[in-house]
Design a protein that fits this description.
Shape: rod-shaped
Number of strands: 36
Distance between the termini: 178 Å
Helix content: 10-25%
Number of helices: 10
């Protein structure tokens, strides 16, 4: 019991001593010391208005009335900081020795204004004094010694901001960002040691949090670079960085990881509406690699990897801000799944038997009339090189892609070095101009593509099985796919190798003069097809088609209306000698929608061909009978008329020889 009484008396004495020290504390000098330290650190005047009173809880120190921190001399927005007051904590052990040392500062309900002027300078870039007081000046009793640098001798066990507000103004862009419910805590117990920062706030209703460790806070504030390890979050989005950072000017160089999958929170924080992405897109949006922010504001990514759902794109990139930002990138990827971005139903198809497409796979009534957005082409300039192992466009799957593209002043142009498509390869150049509406141009060389798969995917037509070589020069303009197809112009050539055309047996038609060789099971085998064509307002015209087949040859002419998706074409096959009806030619009309065309023989021409054949047969029989009666026999390759003339000449010669005695 005696020791308990002694302990209680000791506590009472200590509390009484502490209370006496607080009552005797030079509060004005403590407040002035805090203001001087802030001014030495920032070069800005801290004004304390209202009374200064001592406090015992939660820390021994002083509390002030309203305070304000001067802004940069170029600002016209008022103080950089205003607050209801400061709570300054004192080192109790040093206070017992008669010294004053600030260990903690809490800023109560501050309003913080951060500004970046048009030339990029921020009001947080302080012009600080170079050295301590002039020689011979009396130092403040108990104050820390001011050495070289802004924060020499200043330590802070804990600095706190509670119930604050922060406004950021960018005078270059006119952007204004406001944060509410700002709470921050900074600990820097050793000037040359690390500092820890924790920050929370609300941005348009979205919680923003940040924690950082600064290897040498004093060096960072003094304008040097210091290593920073940072973790930040916005909703479910997160960002992590580890590397050197500088504040004057702002710069960074280190390892970056960013998960921006929570687009809803990000756009809500920015006061914008999230984009309407296709279903399944945006579930995973992750960027990682080595990142650098240069003093002029450029952002460089090296050995970076961007993951979009199941796609991964790697490479280097540089983004330079400005009135028209510029992006330069060299990227590589595996097979890119772009199917969610491609509208379904771009093509249909005929059934496997060669008939018209069924309801489940029939092509749509026409091309899409939905407007094509080109506004994105005006947002920046870019130079991008892409090397991908393949492209998955849903119905269409393409192989290796190598291209270089340039976007400048809303005009996109590029060189296609390689595009493996349908067992062939596509090379050439293209141009997309979005400055006045939308116009397209392309010069393409397509070699060895599988025509059946290409036409099935692009136009719902699967009757032609062969390999194709094409040279195309195309131009179009319009705000929708339908308008582009209706304005398509240009021309080109194509050649098909050995193959077959299903649903039509030209040889059977000619040999038997029967138009019923159409439909399932019918086919025309050919050795080659070649033609040239022109395009005008979406209509393809051709007059020199040439088909070579084992039993026939054919020529053709007509039109294919790409806008209306139909055709009107006349094919004139000719049976070759040895086919059974050698030399017969019967025009063949192909009309209607290209997914289910109607094929028919020209009945009048076929009847005339039949009469011609029968007439020739009757004439031949008459010649044969006359030759038999006259005893005339034609030599090989000789006509009956020639044989008769030769026989007459021989008989006349014999008569003359008898008359003149040989």
């Amino acid at each position: 019991m005696r020791w308990m009484i002694r302990g209680l008396l000791g506590v009472v004495v200590l509390v009484g001593l502490g209370g006496a020290l607080v009552l005797l504390m030079p509060t004005d000098r403590v407040a002035r010391l805090a203001a001087d330290q802030v001014e030495k650190a920032t070069g800005r005047v801290l004004t304390i208005s209202g009374g200064v009173r001592p406090s015992l809880w939660p820390e021994i120190g002083v509390e002030t009335g309203a305070v304000s921190l001067a802004n940069a001399d170029w600002s016209e927005q008022g103080p950089m900081l205003t607050a209801e007051g400061l709570a300054v904590g004192i080192d109790f052990a040093r206070l017992l020795r008669g010294q004053i040392a600030v260990r903690e500062v809490a800023v109560i309900a501050p309003h913080i204004l951060l500004e970046r002027r048009a030339d990029g300078r921020g009001n947080w870039e302080f012009d600080r004094p170079e050295s301590a007081a002039a020689p011979g000046a009396a130092a403040e009793p108990g104050a820390e010694t001011q050495g070289q640098g802004a924060l020499a001798g200043i330590t802070l066990d804990r600095g706190e901001i509670a119930d604050g507000a922060l406004v950021y103004l960018d005078h270059a862009s006119g952007a204004r960002t406001e944060l509410s419910d700002v709470a921050a805590e900074l600990t820097a117990p050793d000037r040359d040691g690390p500092a820890d920062l924790k920050f929370k706030a609300l941005l348009n209703g979205q919680e923003v949090s940040l924690s950082a460790r600064i290897a040498r806070a004093a060096a960072l504030i003094d304008g040097e670079q210091a290593r920073v390890t940072l973790d930040a979050a916005l909703g479910r989005a997160s960002l992590a960085f580890d590397g050197p950072v500088g504040l004057a000017p702002l710069s960074a160089d280190g390892k970056l990881f960013a998960d921006v999958s929570d687009l809803r929170a990000i756009f809500a924080a920015a006061g914008a509406t999230p984009p309407q992405l296709p279903s399944g897109v945006g579930q995973r949006l992750v960027l990682e690699g080595h990142a650098a922010l240069t003093p002029d504001g450029a952002i460089r990514l090296e050995r970076a990897s961007f993951g979009q759902d199941g796609n991964t794109i790697s490479g280097d990139a540089e983004f330079v801000p400005g009135a028209r930002p510029h992006l330069e990138a060299r990227l590589s990827a595996g097979t890119l799944d772009l199917s969610p971005f491609v509208a379904n139903g771009s093509g249909g198809g005929a059934d496997k038997k060669g008939g018209a497409g069924s309801a489940s796979n029939a092509p749509p009534a026409g091309w899409s009339t939905a407007p094509i957005d080109t506004d994105w082409m005006r947002t920046l300039d870019a130079e991008i090189g892409l090397d991908a192992e393949g492209l998955d466009l849903g119905k269409v799957r393409l192989g290796r892609l190598r291209l270089d593209a340039r976007l400048e002043d809303a005009r996109l142009s590029g060189d296609l070095h390689e595009l493996q498509a349908y067992a062939g390869n596509v090379t050439g150049s293209f141009d997309v101009d979005g400055r006045k509406g939308l116009s397209l141009g392309a010069d393409l060389d397509i070699a060895g593509v599988a025509a059946e798969a290409l036409l099935r995917d692009m136009a719902g037509f699967d009757r032609l099985q062969t390999s194709a070589d094409l040279q195309l020069s195309l131009q179009a303009s319009g705000r929708s796919v339908a308008a582009l197809m209706g304005s398509l112009s240009g021309g080109g050539t194509f050649g098909f190798g050995r193959g077959e055309f299903r649903g039509l047996d030209l040889a059977g038609m000619l040999i038997n003069l029967d138009p019923s060789y159409i439909g399932a099971g019918a086919k025309t085998i050919f050795d080659s097809i070649s033609a040239s064509f022109t395009l005008d307002r979406g209509v393809l015209s051709n007059s020199d088609l040439r088909l070579v087949a084992p039993l026939l040859s054919a020529g053709g002419r007509g039109r294919v209306d790409l806008a209306a998706r139909d055709l009107d074409y006349t094919l004139v096959p000719t049976a070759l000698p040895g086919s059974g009806n050698g030399g017969i030619s019967v025009p063949l009309r192909i009309t209607g929608p290209w997914a289910a065309p109607r094929v028919r023989l020209d009945a009048g021409a076929m009847a005339e061909e039949r009469l011609k054949q029968e007439r020739e047969m009757m004439e031949q029989k008459a010649r044969d009978r006359a030759a038999e009666e006259l005893g005339v026999k034609a030599d090989e390759g000789e006509s009956l008329e020639g044989a008769a003339k030769r026989r007459l000449e021989e008989e006349a010669a014999k008569g003359l020889r008898k008359l003149f005695g040989d």
